[in-house]
Amino acid sequence: MFSYRHAFHAGNHADVLKHITLMATLRHLMQKDPSITLVDTHAGAGLYRLDGDYTETGGEAKDGVIKLMAAFRAEGAKPIADPAPAIDDYLDLIAGFNPSGALRIYPGSPFVMQALMRHASRDRLKLFELHPTDGKSLDGNIAQLEAGRTVTVTRQDGFAGLMPLLPPPPSATGSKRALVLIDPSYEIKSDYAKVSACIQDAVKRFPTGTFMVWYPVIPRPEAHDLPRRLKTLSNQAQRPWLHATLSVGQDPTHGPDDRPGLTASGMFVINPPHTLKASLQQALPQLLTVLGRGRGKGQTLDVGG
Ligand code: SAM
Question: Please, what are the domains in the chain?
Fold first, then answer.
């Protein structure tokens, strides 16, 4: 437990899929006036250095956000097409964290959410992070925002911490709204079962909340079963769902003895905004064209409920 550090992976293809889906969802939710509670059950450190020690060794952003930025924004680049609005919005956000132009900082999900929440309308952001070092970094990064009580960081198990927050408190007009991101490291295989149990409980407590789950697509029965279980849970609760996957395929420069690393991941969204499917329908093929590498590359998008 606790050997996972997101800094090694920040800005990789999985973060790109996750954060584009998160932003497209938040943009829609923020168009409605009533305040909203945002929860990130597995928040990470919040901000990551793309030129730091961790990424120097991992370098996964090179095949993710750095490649995407170069394809659409680099001086002299000949983009494949105009970027899909969801990709454009994401690249704008990343550029905002890097005003000098060079990509040095990558904002994790807490900062993606914080950037899109409305401060005057009493939106609240609740962050959970268990790792002692990443929890401390997150505390420090959030403190710099001087966001007061609108953003809270808790060093607690995010699965357990979520439950007392549901249903969320009513807005001034009486409506209750929440978006929850569940993004574990799946370092221990019990995380898969915990995600299912957590979603089951959360949807029971607050059926109209938007719940987003990230998961790795890897040859492990638990990983394979998770989206199937989430579909079943959503269908049983009669809630609409959206399921998107992005596989960048194998790196053709890797030798047979190299560790392949993560090549694919998925996002499962319960109660997605009605605009999300169209946003991802435009974005996913472009992500595949830019980030796809070799054998096994592909993308899928399904909705139901
Ligand atoms: N959501 C982040 C983002 O998109 O920027 C990345 C999160 S990373 C994949 C998962 C994080 O969950 C790690 O930082 C890990 O330390 C933390 N973690 C692991 N188990 C946890 C638990 N039960 N509750 C809260 N955090 C946990």
Answer: 6-159+174-304 (3.40.50.150)
Q: Which two tokens stand for residue 302?
A: 């399904």
Query: Is 107 near ligand 1, meaning CB less than 6 Å away?
Result: no
Atom of ligand 1 nearest to the CA of 134: 14
Write out the catalytic residue numbers.
183
β-bridge partners, 214: 267
Residues recorded for the chain: 305
222 annotated to bind ligand:
no
N-terminal to C-terminal alpha carbon distance within the chain? 36
Tell me: is residue 19 an annotated ligand-binding position: yes
* 150, 123 contact by CB (below 8 A): yes
Ligand 1 close to Cβ of residue 4 (< 6 A): yes
Which pLDDT value is given to residue 52?
A: 66
How confident is the model over 217-235, as pLDDT tens digits? 999 999 999 999 999 999 9
pTM over 0.90: yes
pLDDT tens string 148-182: 889 999 999 999 999 999 999 998 899 999 999 99
For ligand 1, is residue 42 a contact (CB within 6 Å)? yes
